[in-house]
Amino acid sequence: MTNDDLSTTVQRWLAAEPDADIRDELQALLDGDPTELEDRFHGRLQFGTAGLRAAVGAGPLRMNRLVVRQAAAGLARYILDTDPRGAERGVVIGFDARRKSDVFAADTARVMAANGIKAMLFDQYVPTPVLAWSITDFDAAAGVVVTASHNPPADNGYKVYLADGAQIVPPHDAGIAARIDEVDPTDVALAAPDHELISTVGDEVFDRYLGAIPSVRRRSDVPGPTVAYTAMHGVGGATVMRAFEAAGLPAPIPVEAQYRPDGTFPTVSFPNPEEPGAMDLLIETARTAGADLAIANDPDADRLAAAIPQPDGSWRRLGGDEIGWLFADYLLEHGDGADRLVVTTLVSSALLGKIAAAHGVHSVETFTGFKWIAREVLDRPELDFVMGYEQALGYLITQQPLDKDGISAAVLFAEMAGAAAADGRTMQQWLDDLAARFGRHVLADASVRMSPEEAAAKVTALRADPPAAIGGRDVLSTEEYPEANLLRFELDGGVRVQIRPSGTEPKVKLYGEAVDEDPAPFVDALAGLLA
Description:
By secondary structure, the chain is of the alpha/beta class. The chain folds into 3 domains: 3-207, Alpha-D-Glucose-1,6-Bisphosphate, Chain A, domain 3; 212-265 and 284-438, Alpha-D-Glucose-1,6-Bisphosphate, subunit A, domain 3 (Alpha-D-Glucose-1,6-Bisphosphate, Chain A, domain 3); 441-528, Alpha-D-phosphohexomutase, C-terminal domain (TATA-Binding Protein, 2-Layer Sandwich), CATH 3.30.310.50. Helices cover 38% and strands 21% of the residues. The chain contains 18 helices and 21 strands. The chain has helices at residues 3-16, 20-31, 34-41, 65-82, 86-89, 101-114, 128-138, 172-181, 203-211, 237-246, 280-289, 320-333, 351-359, 370-379, 406-422, 427-438, 452-464, 520-528; strands spanning 52-55, 91-95, 119-122, 142-146, 155-162, 198-201, 227-230, 253-254, 293-297, 304-309, 315-317, 340-345, 362-366, 384-390, 394-396, 441-449, 469-470, 473-481, 486-491, 495-501, 507-515. The strands form 4 sheets. Strands 1-5-4-2-3-6 form a 6-stranded mixed sheet, sandwiched between helices. It has a 6-stranded antiparallel sheet with strand order 16-21-20-19-18-17. α10 crosses α15 and α12 (320-333) packs parallel to α13. The longest helix has 18 residues, at 65-82.
């Protein structure tokens, strides 16, 4: 792009930008550093299976109302092109408490109405699982939730579901992206905010979602444990409290400083329960209250994290796989039939398959990303789906929504803690029992920060020239999963290490697993090959 072309484009964006703060930012860029300006306008955010995510700011490579309007217009075109009843079925739209989430959602509704599509806009903050659940509840053609989930505070995002209530997979992502490419972001038609095609969604959907919560329980006779809970400054708190009440469990003890929605996330620099320190206030609350269990949602409440007390009085945060093992063992124990199905992802633990085999049921390992777990459920209607999980704290224990749900998972996990106590054991003893039955599966992970382009290049280079040994162990086999952009190395001694570029963050992710051995040195050795 020449300087004249850049200047013309920026001026068009400046004239079309509806928000004063973003206009001021763009004007400052225009008056200041040309390099930064070029970086903002050198391409645009690419729509993929996770939708859009970036820092809120000016330009096509940031999240702002022009980018959102363009995405909404592309989605509208895709709905009209692919669903004969799409305009009538409509789109349900929700938002979280992050910066500009409400106006991004309102603009989406106005774009849909301008295209003749019914828009159903939540009138309050909504957890992502409730939005996903509402799509099939309404028989909508699609759903949109404006959230950046557990991304850094400066970010926002735009997540799209189609009519089945599952995250989009190919070819839908490419189809929507192609329609977005056709749209001029500075010239998107908008209906009036009070257009007849725009309606509001309120408490009635929450009531219906919560009405289904009691069905997740397996032992309703078990008294509930004392649970400490954090919403991580997100939008799940009030719904979690209502869910526990609906399920007949005692109300959790909230981390007050993190309970109310706050898109600035004042007590955590990175609102992800997996990040070091993010659960410190929760664990302190649990310790002070003498709780039996500590649980956390991420800010949009689709993930569940947990910590448990140890015999010495300390607390230990559970890994995502450990929570998944416990869910699987409990749900398979409280059910019957060989035609049951559990699902996990390539980078999650191999132990799920062993647990499933012990119960005589089907297990599937699928590509990274919860959208693929949902796909397995949809593609195997002859099987009775029991649960699915990914090690990044995502769990699905119901048939609706077909996406991870940290609220229903929180309810069931609390029951499980109560059931363990009723059976005379702690959650740690339960995990120790799994280790005695199947071998102690030891997990390790790491990440190396780098640009998405460099991350993809590094993994491609390893694929082209795989190592003969990692950490002093011979590589027995190398498996490629191009759909997930993942490489798996099986090492001598039963060690498994894997590597892939992150789909949502600028990093390479590495995973290791071994039985009765620490895989961390081999993960570190694999990371060293990226230098």
